[in-house]
TrEMBL record:
InterPro entries the record matches: GH, Glyco_hydro_1
Keyword list, A-Z: Glycosidase, Hydrolase
GO annotation, cellular component aspect: cytosol
Record-given protein name: Beta-glucosidase
Pfam families to which the protein is assigned, alphabetical: Glyco_hydro_1
Family designation: Belongs to the glycosyl hydrolase 1 family.
Lineage: Bacteria, Bacillati, Bacillota, Clostridia, Lachnospirales
Biological process according to GO: carbohydrate catabolic process
Amino acid sequence: MRKFSSDFLLGAATAAHQVEGNNTNSDCWAMEHMENTCYTEPSLDAVDHYNRYEEDIRLMAKAGLNAYRFSLEWARIEPSEGVCDDQEIEHYRDVIRCCRKYGLEPVVTLHHFSSPIWVIRKGGWEAESIIDDFARYTHYVAAKLGSEMNYVCTINEANIGLQIAAIGERYKRQMMAQMSKNQADAGADSTDGAVQMGINLQKMMDNQKAVLEENKKIFGVEKVDNFTSMRTAEGDILIMRVHQAAKAVLKELCPHLHVGLTLSLHDMQVVEAGGERFAEKEWEEEFTHYLPYIMEDDFLGVQNYTRSLFGADGALPYPDGCEMTQMNYEFYPEALEHIIRKAAASFKGDLIVTENGIAVADDERRVAFIEKALDGVSNCIRDGIPVKGYCYWSLLDNFEWQKGYSMTFGLIAVDRATQTRMPKESLEYLGSWRQ
């Protein structure tokens, strides 16, 4: 084992909506409680991290970690347009100071998928108004908390909507092919597994008509353009403009801050002749076309879980008999090193692995995954690539969006009946990589 230096940020990550509980002013909460919901269950109290954050931070420190990546919840901080809740911003100040108390560097994300309901009513993440709305929220956060932070991710997985749109189109083509063969089951599970978040794509597609009517009742619009909706090309660039506006606010108010965003990245591998053009096109859509908007960022948050395979006719399924995770990803920790090297070839700022992990029941496999992934990070650092940190996803077994509580990514298990924390061996193993 090659241990990391003392200044390397070694930690774990969470997202507010997935762990805090009772995020009642958010679009996700509203969608979880719809009659025609795509969520398998509602988040409810989640794992009560909102109240138990000190216990969770203390467990990280005890294991030897020195960083915690977490998100602020916009829907808590600005529950109504233009009206911010000072009590909620003080809550997040307490979380940041708790990190400092236990020797952890807070890596703060301003937006991790969930948004205030009022944002969606205005047109969501496809409306020009999102630029000024997010900049105002960012200004409030920076003015209140800027002196308490060093690292800020503006937006989590800025490319997720475009990925979901592409996979939605692929799913439609699969459905047409299956129907032509008179097969009722379109095999949607394999398609769901191609995007690095918990979605139920088949249910999303099947429910579209019913959802439009319910959307009008709840959001006042038929088409809900939340952050993880199937994004248009114009909306994709709009996200970049939002990021740049937020970064400008942060740098103006707090020049000391290290600012970046995070991207969901797959290890694009060509395994058959002729697959090169498909892999190059996917990488351009997933990464390269964002470079003009992020090249001046202080760091890039790299998020990777698995690889994608390509042949002469395009995307290929995972190899027969390969080990799969609960999320229907291939168990392939080697992907992280490949992605770091490929990103570093174009992006010349610092890199922080802001998410990397697996959902499995067997914690020994999690340990094996972490070992291989961190070997890859060490290799990159040895070769001079400026990787400044690694945050495992996730700290806790939590609410995996539309998949609910069935996906166990965590370093810590939670009995949700009592909210009792049960650290796994993988938590201590991750901490053992620090000198």
